[in-house]
């Protein structure tokens, strides 16, 4: 095995560009998945099977099919329907949608874990439904599920390289481009592999600290 | 779609199923070896197993696939057949996730069972084989079932390396027909059907294994709506 440090230093500027894009995808994708997941979770509580049934089927479908094919679907099919987004936007939408089907279950568990007494108190105080949700149920439910949501952010981080398949130049995309231009595969791929390990390790440490704070 | 194109899709399904089968075998083996090693009495064995888990869980499966395809050949001077390269990358990555399941399930066995084994002077290996594993394995099936679906979804990644799996055949058909909505819908549906069949098989397996240790299978968890103000707690 021959390791070339000069290839590493040549790659580093591209690495920082890729890292920036990866983090962008991660932040935007998390925002989309947190918001959409909450929407799904709330819609699943509407007391009508005309709402819950379609949502249940669609989210089950999205959860059980590969993100990669969903990316291809959005990337190639939307333009046929005359909807054009940039590759990055398409990727963020796809990854956000995919993970919203996971976060939705997290929210559901959180909402179900709110004690019944809280609902009863809200009824006793004659709070309107809207206030019950925004002031009583959701603040307690979301506080409980933050660590679980954080775990999904970490697994989302590990799925961001898939966006390379739809031409987004995130870390792996940059590494592949650099490799193909310079015929040096070992160094860039190893650098980003190590970067992923370090980032997800730091993220899990941060998550543990957050968890400890939320408990108190 | 013409029958020739369907044949392409069928070949894709076959490659995906093969890859899924082999990487499931490897991932299961890795899960049990690493998961059991994490309960070993020597700290160095525990440390190495934990290190393995952190490294392979920490990195992305796709980066791992790239690494196995592009870095291993020049580094060690041998090239793997794509099928084995894909199996290796997926098996090692998902095995790391699986090892956490094995460790968790072993830790959840009542400590009195282990102590009973010590009192009867079983060797550590006998304890693992005759007491701990038979009770822990049924508990592992539901999380393993989820992991299996993740692995199925992970097999699609090899199409980026040009392996002719189901997702790749979808791309070929798209290029042939210059039309994508139809074929990608079919591909997604096929993946969904495979996933559905897998969950069914795993549920049957769980039932069988739990009956073997005298437990009822887990109740199907229906979403229980909170009775608003009904006074039931």
From TrEMBL, chain A:
Q: Which residues form the ABC transmembrane type-1 domain?
A: 19-207
Sorted alphabetically, which keywords does the UniProt record give? Amino-acid transport, Cell membrane, Membrane, Transmembrane, Transmembrane helix, Transport
Q: Enumerate the transmembrane spans.
A: 20-43, 83-102, 189-210
**Predominant location:** membrane
Q: Name one GO molecular function term.
A: transmembrane transporter activity
A GO CC term? ATP-binding cassette (ABC) transporter complex
Indicate what this protein is called per its UniProt record.
Answer: Ectoine/hydroxyectoine ABC transporter permease subunit EhuD
UniProtKB/TrEMBL annotation, chain B:
* InterPro entries per record: AA_ABC_transptr_permease_3TM (IPR010065), ArtM/GltK/GlnP/TcyL/YhdX-like (IPR043429), Ectoine_EhuC (IPR014342), MetI-like (IPR000515), MetI-like_sf (IPR035906)
- GO CC, one annotated term: ATP-binding cassette (ABC) transporter complex
Q: Which domain of life is it from?
A: Bacteria
Q: Name one GO biological process term.
A: amino acid transport
Q: Which CDD domains match?
A: TM_PBP2 (cd06261)
Q: Which GO terms describe its molecular function?
A: transmembrane transporter activity
Transmembrane feature ranges = 12-37, 49-70, 183-201
- Has UniProt tagged this entry with the keyword Transport? yes
Ordered alphabetically, the record's keywords are: Amino-acid transport, Cell membrane, Membrane, Transmembrane, Transmembrane helix, Transport
The subcellular localization recorded is: Cell membrane
ABC transmembrane type-1 domain residues: 13-202
Q: How does it sit in the membrane?
A: Multi-pass membrane protein
Q: Which family does it belong to?
A: Belongs to the binding-protein-dependent transport system permease family.
State the protein's name.
Ectoine/hydroxyectoine ABC transporter permease subunit EhuC
User: Taxonomic classification, please?
Assistant: Bacteria, Bacillati, Actinomycetota, Actinomycetes, Kitasatosporales
């Amino acid at each position: 095995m021959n390791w070339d440090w000069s290839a590493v230093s040549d790659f580093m500027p591209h690495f920082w560009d890729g890292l920036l894009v990866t983090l962008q995808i991660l932040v935007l994708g998390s925002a989309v998945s947190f918001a959409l997941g909450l929407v799904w979770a709330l819609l699943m509580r509407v007391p009508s099977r005309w709402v819950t049934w379609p949502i249940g089927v669609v989210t089950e479908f999205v959860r059980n099919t590969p993100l990669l094919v969903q990316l291809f679907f959005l990337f190639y099919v939307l333009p046929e329907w005359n909807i054009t987004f940039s590759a990055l936007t398409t990727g963020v939408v796809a990854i956000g949608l995919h993970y919203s089907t996971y976060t939705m279950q997290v929210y559901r568990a959180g909402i179900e874990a709110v004690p019944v007494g809280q609902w009863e108190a809200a009824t006793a105080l004659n709070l309107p439904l809207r206030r019950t949700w925004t002031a009583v149920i959701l603040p307690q439910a979301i506080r409980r599920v933050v660590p679980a949501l954080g775990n999904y952010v970490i697994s989302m981080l590990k799925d961001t390289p898939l966006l390379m398949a739809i031409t987004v130049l995130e870390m792996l995309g940059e590494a592949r481009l650099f490799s193909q231009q310079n015929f040096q595969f070992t160094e860039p791929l190893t650098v980003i592999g190590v970067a992923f390990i370090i980032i997800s390790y730091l993220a899990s440490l941060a998550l543990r600290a957050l968890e400890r704070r939320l408990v108190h | 779609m013409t029958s020739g194109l369907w044949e392409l899709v069928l070949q894709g399904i076959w490659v995906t199923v093969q890859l899924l089968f082999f990487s499931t075998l490897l991932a299961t083996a890795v899960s049990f070896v690493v998961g059991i090693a994490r309960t070993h009495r020597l700290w160095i064995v525990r440390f190495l197993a934990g290190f393995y888990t952190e490294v392979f869980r920490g990195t992305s499966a796709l980066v791992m696939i790239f690494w196995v395809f592009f870095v291993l050949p020049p580094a060690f001077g041998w090239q793997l057949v794509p099928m084995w390269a894909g199996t290796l990358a997926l098996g090692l990555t998902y095995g790391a996730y699986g090892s956490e399941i094995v460790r968790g399930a072993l830790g959840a066995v009542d400590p009195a069972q282990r102590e009973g084994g010590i009192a009867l002077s079983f060797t550590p290996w006998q304890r693992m084989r005759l007491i701990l594993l038979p009770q822990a394995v049924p508990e592992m099936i539901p999380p393993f079932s989820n992991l299996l679906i993740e692995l199925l979804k992970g097999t699609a990644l090899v199409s980026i390396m040009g392996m002719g799996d189901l997702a790749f055949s979808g791309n070929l058909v798209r290029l042939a027909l210059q039309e994508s909505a139809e074929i990608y819908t079919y591909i997604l549906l096929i993946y969904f059907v495979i996933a559905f069949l897998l969950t069914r098989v795993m549920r049957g397996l769980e039932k069988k294994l739990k009956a073997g240790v005298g437990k009822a299978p887990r109740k199907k968890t229906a979403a229980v709506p909170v009775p608003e103000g009904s006074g039931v707690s």
